[in-house]
């Protein structure tokens, strides 16, 4: 409509449904038209309220949000796995401590029994040969 009224040259698109390109003179392209008074201007092109930038930003935000969700999920899985490993290690440590205390108790019993047998042997050796023979009857 404006191109016809102002006499600006138009380029028709080769495909059906595509937009027609209008060659706007440089002196008119510097100021936004009245219809686009609140439009953003970038490199001579007028974008209606920055819709293209918002779409690009939204796509980037969505992609980054998805990547962040994947990273968070992996971190949660790694945390859960390490927590299970820590629980297994703690139970194994408790088992080893239990086995160690049992071994120490068995060692004490064997030591005390050996000391008692040594004492009994010393007593028997101290009585002499006749006393030993008498104890066998």
List keywords for this structure.
137 residues, mainly alpha, 2 domains, two-stranded antiparallel ribbon, two-stranded antiparallel sheet, 4 helices, 69% helix, rod-shaped
Q: Could you give a quick summary of the protein structure above?
A:
Helices cover 69% and strands 7% of the residues. It has four helices and four strands, in the order H-E-E-H-E-E-H-H.
Helix and strand arrangement:
Elements: H1 2-6, E1 10-11, E2 21-22, H2 26-29, E3 40-42, E4 45-47, H3 51-127, H4 129-136
Antiparallel strand pairs: 1-2, 3-4
Characterization of the model:
By secondary structure, this protein is mainly alpha-helical. The protein has two domains: 2-47, no CATH class; 48-121. The protein is built from four helices and four strands, in the order αββαββαα. Strands 1-2 form a two-stranded antiparallel sheet. A two-stranded antiparallel ribbon has the order 3-4. The radius of gyration is 48 Å and the shape is rod-shaped. The N and C termini lie far apart (137 Å).
């Amino acid at each position: 409509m404006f191109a016809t009224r102002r006499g600006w040259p138009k380029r028709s698109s080769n495909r059906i449904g595509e937009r027609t390109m209008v060659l706007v003179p440089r002196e008119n392209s510097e100021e936004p038209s009245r219809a686009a008074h609140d439009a953003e201007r970038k490199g001579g092109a007028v974008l209606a309220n920055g819709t293209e930038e918002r779409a690009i930003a939204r796509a980037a935000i969505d992609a980054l949000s998805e990547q962040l969700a994947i990273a968070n999920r992996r971190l949660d899985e790694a945390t859960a796995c390490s927590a299970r490993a820590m629980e297994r290690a703690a139970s194994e440590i408790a088992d080893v401590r239990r086995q160690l205390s049992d071994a120490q108790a068995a060692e004490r019993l064997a030591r005390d029994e050996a000391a008692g047998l040594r004492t009994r042997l010393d007593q028997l050796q101290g009585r002499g040969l006749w006393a030993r023979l008498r104890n066998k009857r």
